[in-house]
Amino acid sequence: MVVFVRIMGNTRRRNRLLARSTTQIPKFKDGDIVLASYPDGIGYRSTIITYHEAVCLVRRGEEGFVNGVATAYVYPFAQEEDDTCSRILLEDL
Questions:
Q1: Which of 6, 45, 51, 75 could potentially form a cystine with 85 if both were Cys, beta carbons 3.0 to 4.6 Å apart?
Q2: Which strands sit side by side in the sheet containing 65-68, from one edge to the other?
Q3: From which domain of life does this come (predicted)?
Q4: Is 34 within 8 Å of 58 (Cβ atoms)?
Q5: Which 3-state string (H, E, C) describes the chain?
Q6: Whole-number Å distance between alpha carbons of 67 and 5
Q7: The pTM of the whole model exceeds 0.85
Q8: Which domains does the chain have, with CATH numbers?
């Protein structure tokens, strides 16, 4: 079963943060491979099924099942030259 999990919060504050941070959030598209941190704090290689600034529905690649999560952080899977990932802030939306 596919479950959409919406990041909850004050609508006015969420809209303000989205307006401020939209330019900092790369435009992922369906099928992109990312590293997504889950509520358990562990990052998993995942495939985005549906992505929006306030909703991120991903498939956990290792386990092979679909899991809807409101991720606090989503990282591009391709790492930078210094082995760090650019952090995409979605928290507090």
A1: 75
A2: 65-68, 55-60, 43-52, 33-37, 73-76, 88-89
A3: Eukaryota
A4: yes
A5: CCCCCECCCCHHHHHHHHHHHHHHCCCCCCCCEEEEECCCCCEEEEEEEEEECCEEEEEECCCCEEEECCCCEEEECCCCCCCCCCCEECCCC
A6: 10
A7: no
A8: 11-89 (2.30.30.140)
